[in-house]
Design brief:
This protein is an all-alpha fold. It contains six helices and no strands.
Length: about 90
């Protein structure tokens, strides 16, 4: 089951956030309020998942989990830049 969630998170991060929210308490334990996961769902889904993973695993952003978090931020920012480039080509 965890491998399935990882595959879903890699290809459909928003679906993974919904599934994690429905079936576990990872997001509730990682974030104090509901606004941050909600904003992460819309704007930075990979970063939201990486932060929840780091907090669940070690309780802080450190070591390998900090590297995963930075890569997730770059992946989210790259998806914004890629979308801009495609829209610019269509004009």
């Amino acid at each position: 089951m965890p491998c399935l969630v990882v595959l879903i998170a890699a290809f459909f991060p928003r679906l993974a956030i919904v599934l994690i929210w429905l079936f576990s308490d990872w997001l509730g334990a990682a974030y104090q309020t509901a606004i941050w996961p909600l904003l992460g769902f819309f704007f930075l889904p990979f970063t939201t998942l990486a932060y929840a993973l780091a907090i669940h695993a070690v309780g802080a952003l450190q070591g390998l989990y900090l590297v995963i978090f930075v890569l997730a931020v770059l992946l989210d920012l790259g998806s914004f830049g890629g979308g801009y480039r495609v829209r610019r080509r269509r004009r």
